[in-house]
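Figure caption, in words: inputs first, then the predicted bound structure.
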Amino acid sequence: MAERRTGVKKSEPRTSPAHFRNKHLLSIGDLDRFEVENLLDRAEAFAPLLEQPIKKLDTLRGRTLINLFFESSTRTQSSFELAGKRMGADVVNMSVKSSSVAKGETLIDTAATLNAMRADLLVVRHGASGAAELLARKVDCAVINAGDGKHEHPTQALLDAFTIRSRLGQIEGLTIAICGDVLHSRVARSNVSLLNLMGARVRLVGPPTLMPIGADRWGAEVFHDMRKGIGGADVVMMLRVQRERMAGGFFPSAREFFWFYGLDEDKLKHAKPGALVMHPGPMNRGVEIDSSVADNPSVSLIETQVRMGVAVRMAVLEALANGGASEGAR
Ligand code: NCD
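Bound structure (N-carbamoyl-L-aspartate present):
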């Protein structure tokens, strides 16, 4: 049908859409392993489309996606925007600085406004943990958490899992070290949950000041020595040092942090031969990661992560636009 209407030959992905039990995607806990596998299969079907000159499907034609970003973002916001457009949806980017929120509107008032606009999908990023969940309770549409404070960033973990699976074939049984500023990282929290769900062995590596209390009960082994922490790892996932969430000194200087925890070629030698390096971006070069590692295409998956992000988000938008099953939906 699509071919006749537009005259453009489109190769439709072969797998069927992923299906979620829950209406929203607020945390990795909303998903089970089967749902994740289906989602990654669907993303795999979308990925080749993104390499073609014409990258558009009409699966979400007539649907409206609102991107509501209270924290600045380059890659996540543009990734959702592209994913929405490539699925054929109308995408609205609400610039929070120029919106009524700057004039004192509460999150609840914003939710009522968005509801009146009859959006189908709402992608939200906010500095407060739990903000996405609060909005989800107040709006009728499906909500996707694109990062809430230090809490969760589920689509980042899904795109990381997709990147690992695409490169190494599977996640089960791999040793994955997540390193650096774990304390302030929603990426780390979502990744620990998802990688555990998929059967990986997860390690958390960082200074005691940047390791959350109780991290050893997250289902990960905690290390404070970088070389030991990444020893024999298949994947080394670096985290950004999040200065904007730090009040006071969590480490003496960037130079010292790099000396102990910055990933360079020398430290990487302790990981498994051929180990791969990831970073969600944006990177602090020379603080948590050295350019010699970040820009080395034979070890770095950082650009691939960005590319995979669009395909994963297309699969997420499709699954949520189809609606959660009534049983267990929330
Ligand atoms: C992450 C985020 O915002 O949580 N970035 C991203 O989504 N690409 C990580 C970070 O900001 O350090």
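Residues 75-76, 147, 153, 156, 186-187, 240, 242, 280-281 surround N-carbamoyl-L-aspartate (CB under 6 Å).
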